[in-house]
Fold these 3 entries.
Entry 1:
Amino acid sequence: MKKRLKVIISGGGTGGHIFPAISIANAIKELHPDAKILFVGAEGRMEMHRVPEAGYKIIGLPVAGFHRKHWWKNFAVLIKLVRSQWKARRIIKNFHPQVAVGVGGYASGPTLKMAGMMGIPTLIQEQNSYAGVTNKLLAKKAKKICVAYDGMEKFFPADKILMTGNPVRQNLLHSTRNREEAIQSFRLNPEKKTILILGGSLGARTINNTLKAGLQTIKEATDVQFIWQTGKMYYQRVMNAVDAAGEIPNLYVTDFIKDMTTAYSAADLVISRAGAGSISEFCLLNKAVILVPSPNVAEDHQTKNALALVNKGAAIYVKDIEAEMKLLPVALETIADTAKLKELRENIAKLALPDSATMIAKEVLKLVKEKGEG
């Protein structure tokens, strides 16, 4: 009798890890509808509510990230890591998966380490152009490593690498609104060019402070309009500044955009951080983009992500430290240059890998077959 397919998917912490994980799970279910999928995340992190919302069960580990500055706090982190490894071992023993998938984030370390030690084949998905510490350690035992950028053999064994790209939220590819309808939904004018500013779900301090300081410039740029997602943390401060500046009819401000499909449809130019997941979305949707990499990430990987596009003429790069001075002038200059917008769209489209989730799901199923349990 054929065994029911069971897969563990582990990782999370940010949307950049969670959305690909859910996309991979959905792709496995499409290929193998009776598959049982269990997520393993980190207690108290975003995945603990996002994954159940997507219809999957998740168990949390008491794992936490290492403190790079306050090293003395790492004793407690090490205790949590040991407890997480024991809990991951129990989860694997009880669930009996045929394969484990790691998407990065705190939980994937202990889960995939224990899976490898227990003889379960593992696959890791590295979203960034600069591999994270956890994935570099897990690569030794991993059977397959799915990547989104060229040149990853400097981090991983070349014979394990598979270029798949990053899976994105599937609903982004199926817009029901054209550009005009999308712009009208934000109470803006379809005849004007539109800049979409994304600070992520929590918000990007530098981008928000730059726009806040430039409200007068925005107000005077009457032939351009702006959709500004501030993130929940900054929304009230931004609204106070907007109210003090007086009426700005070419500006729409919100803390969070739930319908990103419509927001992307409305945008002629996007300003964003350089997270790997966001970049994959821009590639698939052929969006002209200005990237302002966050300096507060491990190994400065967002700058490396941005430069991978900039070197191919597929994005514009503004350093975080220079944003307050340069970001708005560069954005207004770019939005006015139709030829530049076209060039950016065409170049970023060449980097799109549209079937990432399905490619990774097929590799997962191959590992099960190779183990003789398919």
Entry 2:
Amino acid sequence: MKKLLVGLLSWRRLIIMTVGLPLVVSAAVMAFAWPASRIAPRDLPVGIVGTSTASQNAVAGLARSAPGGFDFHLYADEASARSAIKNREVYGAFVITPGNLTVLEATAASTTVAQLLNTAGQELAAHAPQPAPKSTPLSSHGASAPHGASAEAGAKKGAPKKDTVNKGAAKKDAAKNDAAKKDAVQTPAKVRVTTVDVVPSSADDPRGVVFSSAILPLTICGVIIALGAMSVVHTSAWRRPITLVTVSAAAGFGVFLVAQGVLGALPHEHVATWAALSLTLFAVSATSAGLMTLTGPAGLGLSATLMVFIGNPFSGSTSAPELLPKAVDDIGQWLPPGAGANLVRGVAYFDGNDSGGHITVLVLWSVLGLAAVIFGHRGAVVTDDSLVEAPHRVDGEEQERATSSETAPAVRPTPEGYFQPQSAAPAENRPHAHARHAAGH
């Protein structure tokens, strides 16, 4: 019967692994691939310089090409638009003048958005209405003398034949002028498009690929830091928070050395960038450690799901948050991976502008995680088969195990492989040696 039960349990585990694990893998692929397949501008903030008719036509053209895709900000001049880009108020701007269209962009903010703005600028230039150029009257006799003067001179000389010839030439000139006007209306002048990168990416990372590749692993590393901190038994409730802080700071410094020292992807504000990386790691690790403290072994799975399979693809670090579906954007920016990626980008390239909200999100998650670690009542599963107990329970349970081991009954193996206790008879009830020997005979 026991062997039958063991066999049923084995089949049950096999079925769960065969069905459950593929579903988990499919969900993970969907979490990463679905937001990427839905990239499009959604209330993307862009600037329009001026309030002229050409600027109004540009707004109408952009709104018509991507309904709801752009959030327009009007600026009086090009200097104001450049300042807005540096302050991260807009991703770029369009400066429209007669015969020229200048696209102001910031590849440091997002290379994907920069390409999108370039494409939109080309479309605006192709469909921009332009006034027809002024045409010069054509004359087979040159422009030195008007027709009236020639007719008057001919009349004075008494030559009617020349007057007739001049009238015929005037008709030809009028026909040529009409044809030239029609050609000018049918072929308007082309608009020249100029692109200016106001805040460029690093010369060593012009496409921003290194930046994204350095930011995405931070979530996995944060979960690993939390697992390592929870695997050490501490006698004080404050040891784990101290461990999380020191390891996150050291790991952030290591990430900065690789991303900037080796790859050159974080060229500005070195100390502030290191602090942003460390805060991102600390927010992820503190939250993960808090979940492990509160829920035990399930906390590791919850941390990986929340930070890696939701936080990473919803962060918009490889494109821009405004290019993701609205719900994905909102969720991603309230999680540590999304807030951390934007904080690092803002510090490394934009002097920390518009970073207050991202710092608030990271600090909030860090505080909640630390509170769970310090005041939680459950342990967490770590290496091998051991269970790390909560610090305030270690000493008491160690003493309890030591006391119980002295009175524990002996165990003996059974044919089925299980261990059963062997009852110890009192000394006064045990048969004497000679009695047992006699019984043997």
Entry 3:
Amino acid sequence: MTTSTIDTTPGSIGPGMIRFYDAILNPLEAGIYTLEAKQEINDLPGENPAPYIATQDLVVDGPRFAINPAEIHMVYPPANSEGLYDNNMPNMVFTSFTLPWARSIDPATTTRMATLAVDNDQNPIPWIGLLTIYPDDLKNKVGEPQVMKASEVVKPADSKILPPALGDLLGADDTLVTVTDIDLAYFQAIAPSLDELPFLAHGREVNTGGKILLGMEDDGCFSLVFGNRLPMAAAENTMFLVSYEGHQEHLHGSTISGGYTKIRLVLLGSWQFRAKAAQGSFIQLMANLCEPGRGGVKLLQMPLSAATGQISADAEKALQMGYVPLQNNMRQGEESTSWYRGPLIASPTKRDLAYGPYHYSDHAIHYDPETGIFNHAYSTAWQTGRLLALSDASFSSAMFTWRNNYLYGILASSRQLDNSKLSAIAGSMNNNKSSENAREAVVMLMSGGFSKVKWPQITSRSAAVLQDGLPGVFTSEEKTAMAIEDTDPLLMLVNKIKNV
């Protein structure tokens, strides 16, 4: 989709969503235009005056020999970084969403291609592009950047250098321009063709709702320019942002005559990064998993060594399933060992619908009475999901709004109770009171009427098991030992039943 009008107001697209455009065009490209006005006067008796015609030349200005660094939102791979970039296409993002199409690649025309009006499949051609330069090529094929006047760009002193056909410089003859002279055959080998250029730039409309943690707080539109060449692995790569204006007939696949050996390009920007050694293709990486000792779920298991010593069968089974024993600091200050495993471990599990729903993380802790060990896999997943949800600005805002609306609804409902209902709730306490005092009676009932109720007391599991209500289960010596050693009564009960 190509557009020259775009709605940049917040909310035009959903939170966290991106809308792609083949191109975002200015109403007028940069260039020279002629405005013509014509007036005819007819039906005058005995006269036939010539029409009045007036013309006015005007210039639509735009970036040409330099780009404001403030318009560069980001580059990828990041400048001066090192990483596995050998399978990533370098790109540059601009805050000026019309920049790649701000001017025509052919300065001889100031209008867009005529086919664009009738052929929606024909995309506008960007006037800028990225070249990926490898280390040896940078030394042997690419000349050092140099600064010169714009008039020298189009008229090189060396007749072997092919200049851009920029046409009228519009009074910018003395403007200083950064250029680089590149071996012509090398340039034609790595440069895109004229037909490929439209696919190396596009526009994006972004709603940054929920992305505040990424430093993206403003909705807006961006334009992107991609390179057409993958970086070299285990090497320092150099990216050139160049102007293709005036070089529309010099790109890949073009035939050039005149005995030129080099081509002069306007250099708009550059950066470098280092790509680490290639890790292999996806097929190679997957095939390596089938090699002995290279694959299987053991890749995601805690490694065992001779220093680990002999472990129990239950512990070995847990480790094979991807569990890891971790120290568990309990709320009472005690220390214990608990199991944990992540949700992406490559080990089959059986879903138990008896689990959940959980209302808080501790509710999701599983306990094995046979081993006396807690399993924190579900509780950790619950807490992680809760934190991820609350870190999403749009979700947390919607949740708190729903919660407040629910509480306000309850409060509003309570205020709408009529006096007869309040009197009924208050009961015999307000038989001799007027209806206007019914609300006060209800408040007194709720605050003081239940104060003398003997509510059932909740006792701990230790107290419930160690009390005398279960004679014969534990001896007095066992009870004393459990109290001194702080042993779990339920675990002792299970072991005792097994040994009976």
